[in-house]
Amino acid sequence: MTLVKRINFDQIGGVLYQDEVQNFVIDFDNYRNYSLSVNDSIYPTLSNGLVLIKDFQLGEHSIALVKTGEKTIKKKFKYNRTAPLITNDAVVFGLLFLVLVLIFRTAEMPIFKKFYGIVPALLLCYFIPAILNSLNIISSDISNLYFVASRYLLPASLILLCLSIDIQGIKRLGGKAVIMFFAATIGIIIGGPIALYLVSLAAPEVLTGGLWRGLATVAGSWIGGGANQAAMLEVYQASDKLFSKMIIVDVVVANIFMSVLLFGTGQNKRLNKFFKADDSAIEALKTKMEAFQKSVEKVLTFKSLTYMLGIVFGLVGLAHLLSGYIAPGIEEWLESIKSSSPNAAILFTSFGSGFFWLVVLSTIFGVILSFTKARNFEGIGASKVGSLFLYILVATIGTKMNIAEMIREWNDFVYLFAIGLIWILIHALFLFVVAKIIKAPFFYVAVGSQANVGGAASAPVVASAFSPALAPVGVLLAVLGYAVGTFGAILCTILMQSISV
């Protein structure tokens, strides 16, 4: 083990391990006129232009070069205890695929029928990789699999799931789906300030120190996704140290809640009975899609598979190309109006996100294909391939959750987790009350919630847990979440700020 490691500032990033190095000497010779800030604390410069940093704690850290009148240069890295057992992404991908095979193979066995009747297979696709990550067998910190799955497989999945979409059938689902989506949004807006107030009764210090600024980023994430979270960070300027804590709370609580929703899909009939909900329109859509699949079903050939995937990934490439032009153009426009119309620039920040346009364009391409002969690709398993891509995405999302880290840092995060858990509980209770009043099926509850809290990466996952035919509903609601996210998050933050000291 190296007691002191010298690192050039330009090379900072990724992951460092405690069993390899304990103290750091940061060399920023190229930035002699700057001061070095570590986790928002200025460190003194040694006589030789180096900075010695001792006793780093485990977790995420930010290092920045600060100079009056100049733009701050920031770097981030994570400090973990030890390197994971498996560091090769090819091996990790193979392991995750074997996990999927194991789950769906056992799901077909009569001996496990009762178990899978209670615990949905999709939940295990998420939870087993989370256990592997928690045991340090694999680590999302050094893996690019989630990026590949979310940027390449997710857009392809959206196209494949939408190309056979039944627009008229979705229309017949009625307004309850939209009502439950906005009920989920309102649940997040009111849940934040209520949770903050309730926790303050036991720990008054949560109302001081600008904690509400960090919670603003969670509100942005839970009403729309990453782009809206970035907007809230820009608006309310949470410190890097606070923001890193909020990311952990966001990921852990949101993933726990997603697990609950996936578990709920196995209790769908009981919950619908509780809500006194009529899910005939949903069942009719599922039946119609299954009938359509059978009517166009044919033998899969190499030629037809190549043709289908060629069109799909060609459109994924086009979506990336167009988003690469649209997003920077909008971002540049937003930057230009910042001084004259700062509020407008903030509210429409999500439209400057490349991922937002990637999701929107992929969805549009899929819907357009549903009006062409490409709709018949369903006959060779378009939705099945799309579902497979989604399951791979779910497995990579699972690798981002670290149960061991949550337990280890519980004392440091106990009040933050308490706020997050109470917040999401209020969100869920509000959804249940509204669903009970309007007699909405649990499908609308689950997908409306996940379209807010999880966004486009997980809303179709939850929808497809009910049926692959319903995945497009999750996609469309998630896009709506991107559009309203910043507005809702700002309202939530104003309420949280109003009760803080």
TrEMBL record:
Give the transmembrane region(s): 85-104, 116-139, 145-165, 177-199, 242-263, 305-326, 346-369, 381-401, 413-435, 442-463, 469-496
Q: Which Pfam families match?
A: DUF819
Record keywords: Membrane, Transmembrane, Transmembrane helix
Q: State the superkingdom.
A: Bacteria
Report the protein name in the record: DUF819 family protein
